[in-house]
Design brief:
This protein is an alpha+beta fold and 178 residues long. 20% of the residues lie in helices and 39% in strands. It is built from three helices and ten strands; from the N terminus they run βββββααβββββα. Strands 1-2-3-4-5 form a five-stranded antiparallel sheet, covered by helices on one side. Strands 6-7-8-9-10 form a five-stranded antiparallel sheet.
């Protein structure tokens, strides 16, 4: 049985000190390493490493990895909430061929951006797409699921658009600039 002794999380890194009554381990989630999920022994040797959270499912440290991911996600939400209060934006809602599209044209740090969330219900399985591009419409970030954007500075903007799908989807006639 593992005991979580200390957990530290930042917006871009999370680590925990874990004990199994005889050994001490350092478990970390570090997206800047080759493998994001790592376990170190007391000496500092890597004893387990995984690229994705789903690869860790059979590890005895899987619960710790999940806690680290959740802690880091929480930090991102806390650190990222300021962007919504800093931006000036204009939202549009459109429906095209079974696709609901919410766009947010906004200014952040003096630069123009377009955030876009698409909910495509034209097939049996609903598909989503989240993107943020600059004023030249060059894709800077593109995600197939909202959780993939968790480390993005624009996550709160994309989550806000996703929330619009959850609410009653309003259709406002507007020029389509998405």
């Amino acid at each position: 049985m593992l005991m979580l002794r200390v957990l530290t999380a930042k917006f871009d890194y999370a680590a925990a000190e874990v004990s199994d009554s005889s050994n001490l381990y350092r478990v970390e989630y570090n997206p800047y390493r080759e493998n994001f999920f790592l376990v170190y022994d007391e000496v500092g040797n890597v004893i387990e490493s995984y690229l994705r959270l789903e690869d860790c499912v059979y590890s005895r440290f899987s619960g710790i990895f999940l806690s680290l991911q959740k802690a880091m996600n929480a930090c991102n939400m806390v650190y990222g909430t300021d962007i919504l209060s800093e931006i000036t934006s204009s939202k549009t809602f459109t429906v095209e061929n079974g696709r609901r599209i919410v766009c947010n044209r906004f200014t952040y740090h003096g630069k123009q951006y377009l955030a876009r969330a698409v909910q495509d219900e034209s097939s049996e399985i609903t598909a989503y797409e989240y993107s943020v591009s600059d004023s030249n419409r060059l894709k800077e970030e593109n995600y197939q699921a909202l959780y993939q954007a968790i480390n993005s500075v624009f996550y709160p903007v994309l989550a806000d658009l996703s929330h619009d799908f959850e609410k009653n989807f309003l259709f406002e006639p507007a020029e389509s600039f998405c």
